Amino acid sequence: MADELVRVTVVENEPAAEIASSALRADGIESIYRQTNFAAGTMDGTRGGAQEILVRPADLERAREILGGTA
């Protein structure tokens, strides 16, 4: 995923991010998720809080369709 990545959506926590990423992978779209700046520091250094889902720009439209109500 060397291309610049774009945000598809933000979800409330890491389990939700894993579910969203799994849905994208099932459709052949590579994605990553990471803690948002908003959530940084809210979990005493552990991953938690809001997570943003990132994909390649070419996959953005399809990813939005897949995630539907969460995007």
What is this entry, summarized?
The protein is an alpha+beta fold. It has helices spanning 14-26, 60-67; strands at residues 6-11, 31-35, 51-55.
Provide a descriptive summary of the structure in words:
The longest helix is centred in the N-terminal third of the chain and has 13 residues. Strands 1-3-2 form a 3-stranded antiparallel sheet, with helices on one face. It is an alpha+beta fold and 71 residues long. The chain is globular, with a radius of gyration of 12 Å. The mean pLDDT is 85. 30% of the residues lie in helices and 23% in strands. It has one domain: Alpha-Beta Plaits, CATH 3.30.70.
As laid out across the biggest beta sheet, the strand order is 1-3-2
Q: Provide the structure class.
A: alpha+beta
What's the number of domains? 1
Instruction: Give the oligomeric state of the chains in this entry, treating copies of one chain as homo and distinct chains as hetero.
Output: single chain
Stretches where pLDDT is under 50 for at least 5 consecutive residues are none
How would you sum up the global shape?
globular
Radius of gyration from CA coordinates? 12 Å
Largest sheet: 3 strands, antiparallel
Number of strands: 3
CATH topology: Alpha-Beta Plaits
Count helical runs. 2
Strand content: 15-25%
**How far is it from the N-terminal to the C-terminal residue, by CA?**
21 Å
CATH architecture: 2-Layer Sandwich
